[in-house]
Amino acid sequence: MLSNKLQLFLCCILLSPLVLAAADGSQLWLRYDKVTAAEAGRRQIRSTSSGPVALMAKAELDDYWRGPAVELVIDKKKREYGEGYQIKWTGSGLQILAQQDRGLLYGAYHLLRLQGEGKDLRGVDLTEIPAYDIRILNHWDNLDGTIERGYAGRSLWKWLELPTQISPRYAAYARANASIGINAVVLNNVNASPDILRPDYLLKVKALADIFRPYGIQVYLSINFSSPKIIGGVKDSDPLNPDVSTWWKNKVKEIYRTIPDFGGFLVKANSEGQPGPQDYGRTHADGANMLADALKPYDGLVMWRAFVYNPTTEDRAKQAYQEFVPLDGKFSENVIIQIKNGPIDFQPREPFNPLFGALRKSSEMVEFQITQEYLGFSNHLVYLAPLFKETLDSDTYSDGKGSTIAKLTDGTLRPAKKTAISAVANIGEDTNWTGHHFAQANWYAFGRLAWDHQLSSEQIAEEWISLTFSREEQLVHAVKEIMMTSREAVVNYMMPLGLHHIFAFDHHYGPEPWGDRKGGRADWMPWYYHNADTVGMGFDRTASGSDAVSQYFPPLDEIYGDITSCPDSLLLWFHHVSWTHRMKSGRTMWEELCYRYDAGVQQVRELQKAWDRLEHQVDSQRFAAVQSKLKIQAKDAVWWKDACLLYFKTFARQPIPYDIERPVHELEDLKKIKLNLIHHN
Ligand code: GCV
User: Fold this and answer.
1) Are 510 and 503 in contact (CB under 8 A)?
2) Residues 223-237: pLDDT tens digits?
3) 90, 105, 128: which is the final residue of a domain?
4) Residue 430 catalytic?
5) How many domains does the chain have?
6) Any idea what DSSP says for residue 48?
7) Does residue 582 sit in the same domain as residue 622?
């Protein structure tokens, strides 16, 4: 027999319709209504731990849980759980069992998620253990309140007001992260101001760390390698100068005195004009290890970025590998090499970065980009889980078949002191946090995949839609279709067949395949990447070209290196292909290119139609906001298609197939477009 309380709970969970009040997106996926006093009186939430994180778990359930009694229990012996938990039906209620308080918090959010999705919890028994130890967001926020590559307004961090004035959004931000398992954040831009390490700024950082702590979130900082010289009055910042390492040791001591659970440093060194150890003839390992030494006594970490390239004659795609592989084995245990998913720079599609797996004796972590620097900013609807999964599921063959990037970085194939995964945040002070309502899904998806990279993009989309919009089946299905099409759409209308980096200079919004700047770096010019000429186009990275293919393990070097086996999706990444080359589809390369661009435009038109059909199922505020962004996206898709096809046609010297949508622009007019978008470096 079911007790009355239980019956009531099941009724609530199973039958309550979701009422769609107008929404501004500020609640993200946490659109839970607080329980009433009467509801609260009907059930009990108890915790065996009284630490701040456990109390937060209890408070969340006290406030939002409508089900039966929940017991939060710590079992210190369950070491294998790490930050994970077990949720178990006890017959009359539920128990969340964890080894650490963070586990209780994640378990509590899991329960709330199941409630939001309307799941039946009778008999539930599930165990969740996170795939990565550190699940970290990188903010590229500057101390002046701007955000490099940020498209959702200014920075959340009000440096001028901190530590005195505390915005309520700090806690809301931490809560959102905790609800999807994110447990660490880097507050400031990798193009870092040395000022962040000044004592007054450290007090501001401490204020944020204090707010984040009960949500289980640790703070990290990006540092400027020249800090000892710039703010410390040391003669230089040479990592082998004892005065420099002493300065860092003292600085680290000061940080931990202020923030005892500080996470560590993220470092962009000798990249795009940033200072680094090479300024003194030292290596990346010398630089990273000097910082690692300072952090070691406190269990702190160095996340050292592998995003390095110089304007030499060497293919940019090869340079990180060339720089880091010879240093393998030379990095201290508490250094993790942070590697962008692809070898160039967060393009709509790239092959995976060949450094993954190539470093055998150094810890590696992935860096994704959630903010859509190269994907239409916060104007385009692009669901990024398929892109993230594409990288994580890529088989590098480094340790034989099945050596996926997920397994190389999560500790399965290469045991590490700490495993980690990171992404550049898309969060700003916009009411809806991310500029585009659907960009929230990318923040959500990163968190969920960092917790469990085996989740499918579809599963994550379903969860997010149910929590964010409604769990009405037909709506979930329709929105999921929109999301699942969106990534291929953007690849098609921007850069199909492995094209890359043909963006407008600097701001990276629109197309500029003709782009050229007198005196500018070749590796920042679109022609460097597309190499269009009267014969064909694409970057020859085979053995007869830059030989970047040789950085991939067999059999990938051969698969990518052979024009007949190279996947269409990466063809122009690895090959200079003649316009008349026969593709797998039977079309010539030129024709295929035209059809892909056109397909991208048509896909966006379908997204628009699918969204408009939902007019009465989505609240009017968010419906209208997304609808108007889709209009921009549709116009931009046509702009991309026309710009690229009209420009490449001047080389291909063939007509655009007559059965596809005709250009509506003149190439000369498109070349005149100069968007005045500020890029904050
Ligand atoms: C933070 C790209 C971006 C830069 C960014 C850099 C990086 O080049 O355009 O804005 O700088 O990547 O990841 O360091």
Assistant:
1) yes
2) 999 999 999 999 999
3) 128
4) no
5) 3
6) S
7) yes
